[in-house]
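Hi R.,

Here are the chain sequences for the assembly we discussed:
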Amino acid sequence: MLSVHFALFLIFALVCVAGAVNLLVQRHPINSALSLVVVMGSLAVEYLLLGAEFVAAVQVIVYAGAIMVLFVFVIMLLNAGEEERTQGSRVALLLGIPGMLVGSILIAWVVLNHSGTGSVEAGALPGPPKTLGWLLFHDFLLPFEVTSILVLIAIMGAVVLAARPEKREG
Amino acid sequence: MGIGLFIFISLIKIVIGLAVLLTGVAYSVWLERKVVGHIQNRWGPTRVGPFGLLQPLADGAKLLFKEDLLPPNVYKPLYIAAPMIAIICAVASISVIPIGNSVTVFGVTTPLQITDVNISLLIILGITSLGVYGVALSGWSSNSKYSLLGGLRASAQMVSYEIALGLSLVGVLIMAGSFSLRDIVDAQAGHCWGFIPRWNIFTGQFVAFFIYLTAAYAETNRIPFDLPEAETELVAGYHTEYSAMKFAMFFMAEYANMITVSCVATLLFLGGWHGPVFGPPILQAFLPVFWFVAKVFVFMLIYIWVRGTLPRFRYDQLMAFGWKVLLPLAIVNLIATALAVAW
Amino acid sequence: MVPLSYYLILGGILFACGVTGFLIKRNIITIFMSIELMLNGVNLSFVAFAAQWHALQGQVFVFFVMVVAAAEATVGLAIIISVFRTRETLNVDQVNLLKL
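And here is the predicted structure of the full complex:
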């Protein structure tokens, strides 16, 4: 039962969950950001185990290497300090976390017992970049072009929003 | 080949690769000091050993024995972890760089590469992206205004030029049709028109080579793009508060990044290990590695030559150059390559 | 051979952690990071199902999720910077007046 595939899956799944829980527990946002980078790295390994090599590489380059750098950059720029405890969050903690745990255990129990969807082999669906590129430019051409316009709008929006307000002499 | 033998051979290759890389880092420091010295009409290091060849050992010993300060108000976990992240990312790229074809030692055939995956170029880009964390976190955790400014500037510069770097490589990818570094080098074998080797720099990727060169200088924070760590500007930028071994780790990471970038440029644009092969079989096995090392050496000399010659860019000039000149040029190169290959 | 449901449960745990972080955290940047965690959980489900049903469309869709996440993170962080410039705080409990 304990094949190499399962052992690797389990190790990196535990790293993922540990990183996600650490994100919730840490009070300083920089620690949360770094735990999220760890989560993304271990998710990239999970994608590799499923055979999606290009998606894993893009996950590291784009998500862990660009988006999270942006988060770390903003935390450094704004000099965010540790989080303060306010009144409202006490109630959310007391009710929310047990509720979330119960809900998750319920869903996990249902999925495990009633799924019957079979198992996945290691490297089940190889995702070579060539095939993915073919799909992207033939079947998914319209979403591709629309997302490129979306990125352009996001760039313009970010530049306008984050620019310093002009001081008017007077 | 069983899994045990595979792991054993990989371990040997890792140890050899690491030893060669770290020695290369130490002696590229020596080379830089000598060459920059001669450009500036003075001798470089000459005292320690013949031609100053033992200078890196003396430097290493000095840095080992220096007092390892821990300034009082730093954020300790990240302060200690940041140089480790920097050097891990700098050294990890060696795992996918091929140096030559397969060799057969004691009856075991193995390629001269620690691991051959078919997305090796993307792995190098990914590791380069992760290297930004070492710089950004060291600047922030040092709790000093010079370090913070240096760290912010350096990480913004690295992220901006990463885009131009990646786009300049896509032209090569279109021509080779694969992400694997070995396939890209194999696509540059042979000659066109009789004597000109079919390296990518001669077959159309000339502009891409210079875009890659410029973006690589910015990625590794070298002159003319080294404002974030210039002494006259920001004391020492993001590694102001570091001393002794941690500073040595940043220093080694910078030179290891230079060597990695030179290796990738050799593989992608200068034909890798292809060169005239002649002589008895033992020479034939050794010559590809020799050509590879020679080309990397030429690239490093260009790096050091530019360092000794050019003044540095101001920060807003640097960012404007990256976004307004280099990125559109890379996109135009990509479109032109795609059109040329489609026809 | 790993059952598909294990991958789905991992994705579900990540999603649940993201939702929990979104609800209990008070720092706006940490709330944003919980959103990214939710998106990552969803990405894992996409790739797992793509491997199960041998449909590469799942992996293609992961790209679109990543692109949208990148665009959203960019604009969101720009908004956070401009809110910080006026309110001088990153605590969402204290940004409760429409007028400054």
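Chain A has a mean pLDDT of 84. The first strand of chain A starts at residue 119 and ends at 120.

Let me know if anything looks off.

Best,
T.
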